[in-house]
Design a protein that fits this description.
The protein is α+β, with helices and mostly antiparallel strands and 154 residues long. Helix content is 18%, strand content 27%.
Length: 154
Amino acid sequence: MENKSTLNKIAWSFSSESYSDAEAFNKKVTQYQKDIYDTAERWNPNEIVVDAPEVQIQYEAWITKPSDLLENDQLISDHEDIFDEEPEDDGYQVEIIAKFKADNAKNFTALEFLMKTHNQQVNKELGDHVFFEGIDDRPTIVEGVPTYYIACGS
């Protein structure tokens, strides 16, 4: 069954710009929809996309040192010893899981989910895979927390 949520109908490009103001981020996302689709009707920032007080995202990035990981980032177990190896030219290619708490302690709107996902990745290199391509139809539950793979394309 196809996921009909806002997050699987929109376009977005991750960048190194961090956002602390949800209204400013919403304006950027809205404008991006207009630039790509000539309309912002696909973007519903207030839609509840995750009905849980916590969520985890899993994503791929290149990092150069352990301090590139944010406080809520954790390398998946396959990559825990990655820094014992020599880095590639772009650094270390890793899979990361990050946990977020909902601002209202209940659920995540599309705006909150996308903004937190975006900000999680700003200090990491995504290579040419910067275009958001949606989330899983159904999350994987890890220790009781819904976990979504963030699909990115080039």
